[in-house]
Amino acid sequence: MSTYRHLVRPFLFRQDPEQIHESTLKWAHRAGRSRVARFMIRRAYRVRSNPRLAVHIAGLDFPHPLGLAAGFDKNGRVVEAMAAIGFGHVEVGSVSAEASEGNPRPRLFRLPADEAIVVNYGVPNDGAHAVADRLAQTPIDVPLGVNIVETNTGRPTVEEDVVDEFVRAARPLCGVADYLTLNLNCPNTTAGVSPFDDMERLTHLLHEYSQLENLPPVWLKFTAHRDASRAESLMSCVAPFPFVAGFIFNLPPGKDYPLRTATSVVAPMPGTLCGAPTRSMMDETLRFWYGRLDRSRFKLVGSGGIADPEDAYRKIRLGASMLQLYTGLVYEGPGLVGRIIDGLDQLLRRDGFVHISEAVGVDVPA
Ligand SMILES: Cc1cc2nc3c(=O)[nH]c(=O)nc-3n(C[C@H](O)[C@H](O)[C@H](O)COP(=O)(O)O)c2cc1C
Questions:
Q1: How many CB atoms lie within 10 A of CB 366?
Q2: Within a 10 A sphere around the Cβ of 77, how many other Cβ atoms?
């Protein structure tokens, strides 16, 4: 019996989702700052290092492929605690050049019958400078990513300013983050439409990034799609920029999935649905992209509804070199990380893989 699912979760789910998230961050921040607490958390969750799962990508060493997705720790307050529960990398953000309050509340909703969350946060954050200062004081022993987005001013994005916004947000983080993720189509700020769908603007952005001092490897995060001509244009636009390590897929805005929760409950919730119902759509997105990309050049990060080792393994076999989750943590608790890592090891052994890299994309013929 999972103590989290049966005892902790029912208690947490009686309270407002955003308030619980805030309290969790406060506790995790305190625990993460204490050496003793970190030691005890590591002992409790016991995510062991395992050479079969170690991943080396873009010059970075990840103890295993599973990381914390952006959105949980928007301001870099709990990176130490997240590393202690066993994540193999931690992605902070989204962070923007200027601080932002995000969208009006309520902006976070649970759909327990579907193991899903609807989010309309609108990227509230303390701003890149404040987050960079905080992160500089809290080094962790796994790669640290920071996810960058344009500032949510509550007004439509001014397309001419957006490149400058992304550059200003990145500057204080270069030298602090081990990698950056550029959140090119944040569903909560631009309704999934991106100024960077224009390849000239994306080229301009990447050119400006190439001039940044201490620029770490960069992942591009954009709305999941399976449009061959858009995929081709994106890959040729990105090809001349060697610092682009690969792609992560954002969930499309909306809640267009078959759900158990009544439509009358879901319809009034503004935002983007995350978690279990997105699983198969995100799996198919991986299959599509892995089938088309230059595999020696770009690495995919798989996400969307990872809640057990089989979900993680399927995404690896569909082409993900790395994995991220968020909603699974809310529904399964922090023990999920270790369960996935142990389970992944068993599944790889069962199928005769000596190292995880051998399993990447085996279900997608070249
Ligand atoms: C509450 C919440 C907030 C999120 N905020 C961000 C964000 O600020 N930036 C971002 O790139 N992704 C954000 N995401 C998306 C996650 O990073 C991830 O891509 C997505 O949730 C799919 O994984 P999951 O099904 O395991 O949750 C958020 C997701 C949730 C649930």
A1: 6
A2: 21
Q: What tokens does 43 get? A: 């002992």
Residue extents of the structural domains in the chain: 3-358
For the Cβ of 135 lying below 6 angstroms from any atom of ligand 1, the answer is no
The domain 3-358 having CATH identifier 3.60.15.10: the answer here is no
Beta-carbon contacts of residue 325 (< 8 Å; ≥ 6 apart):
66, 68, 69, 303, 306, 307, 336
Q: What is the pLDDT of residues 87-97, one digit of tens each?
A: 999 999 999 99
Ligand 1 close to Cβ of residue 306 (< 6 A): yes
Q: What is the pLDDT of residues 301-334, one digit of tens each?
A: 999 999 999 999 999 999 999 999 999 999 999 9
CA 351 / ligand 1 centre spacing (Å): 31
Reading the block at residue 254, the tokens are: 């909306």
Q: Which of 326, 329, 330, 332 to mutate to test the pocket of ligand 1 (most atoms within 8 A of CB)?
A: 326
Average pLDDT value for residue range 229-254? 95
User: For 250-281, what is each residue's pLDDT tens digit?
Assistant: 998 899 999 999 999 999 999 999 999 999 99
How many CB atoms within 10 Å of residue 53?
22
